[in-house]
Each structure stands twice: as structure tokens, then as C-alpha cells.
Amino acid sequence: MAKKKKQPKKTNEERILDDNKIEYTEMQFDWLSGKKIALEQVAKAGLKEESILKTIVCLGSDGPKDYLVVCLPIVGEIDLKMVARELGKKQIHLADNKKLIKITGYIHGANTPIGIHAFKEFPIYFDKRVKDFSEVCVSAGKVGRSVRLSLSQLVELVDGQFIKVSDKEV
């Protein structure tokens, strides 16, 4: 008798999507083996690199708990001065990677706007350069595990806003 392939246990973020009746597709990208290998996997899946979003946790200038999240293409760059101007803040800094798990509950590489919004309620911002994508991929709360879903549903779920995060092309 053939054994059934064991399905990976759902992450909290996938359960949040299920609870909100948001359709998604589970994706696996091996970022631990390097960006080049992961981007080859993205291409094999028929996806555009620009639709794979990274989640950057930042600290604003309005106090020690002024955290915010910026989601932008994995192949894109963030201009912290531009983000500060867009949000009317003096400065924006990257959050300390060593303290990410304490700040967000996630290790570096697993931060996700879905969980951070649900559990920490930090404001979530999306790069204007992805506004025209119908679907994007974001982390599912574990390194290498992502969910592909409707951008508009994601933005609505996390009360996201679009801002300009860089002048560089992606």
C-alpha cells in the first residue's frame, strides 16, 4: 500500500488567509541556497521576479516602538530617505536584524505582512511599483515558504497603503 505524501503543516499566516476566505497557492523557494537559485525557481514557476515581495521592518523617528513594514520586490531596493519623506518622518532606519524575532516574532527571512499585521499591528506599506500586479508572493512565516495571492486582497487584509520606496527600476 502506497503511503500518502504528508502535507506540510499550515502556518499561522495560511490559517489567517483561510479564516478570511482568501485563496492562495503555497510556494517554495530555496533562499537559503542563495538568491540566484531561488530566482531560478521563481522563473521555473512562471513568475516574474518583481512579483516576489520581501518584507522590510523599519524603525521610524517617532520613538523606540515606531515600527513599520515596507513590502517591495525581492529584486528592488529601498530608499530610506524617500520612505521617510513619504511618511512625513524625520528618519527611517532598518530594524536591528538581531532583534527581529523580539520585534516581529519572526526570524530574518520569514517576516510577513500577514502575520505582522495580525499579531503586531504595525502599519504596512507596499511599493507603488507593484501596484499593477494582480498577484504577488509574500512569506508564509517560514524561511523558504511563500504564499501567492491577490495583491488587492493582501493590501485589504493588512490595511496596507502604497508609497514610493525608490526611484530605481525593478
From TrEMBL:
Q: Which GO terms describe its molecular function?
A: aminoacyl-tRNA deacylase activity; lyase activity
Alphabetized InterPro entries for the sequence: Prolyl-tRNA_editing_YbaK/EbsC (IPR004369), YbaK/aa-tRNA-synt-asso_dom_sf (IPR036754), YbaK/aa-tRNA-synth-assoc-dom (IPR007214)
Q: Where do the coiled-coil regions begin and end?
A: none
Keywords from UniProt, A to Z, are:
Lyase, Protein biosynthesis
EC numbers on record: 4.2.-.-
An annotated GO BP: translation
Q: What sequence ranges are listed for the domain YbaK/aminoacyl-tRNA synthetase-associated?
A: 40-156
Family named by the database record: Belongs to the prolyl-tRNA editing family. YbaK/EbsC subfamily.
Q: Can you say what this protein is called?
A: Cys-tRNA(Pro)/Cys-tRNA(Cys) deacylase
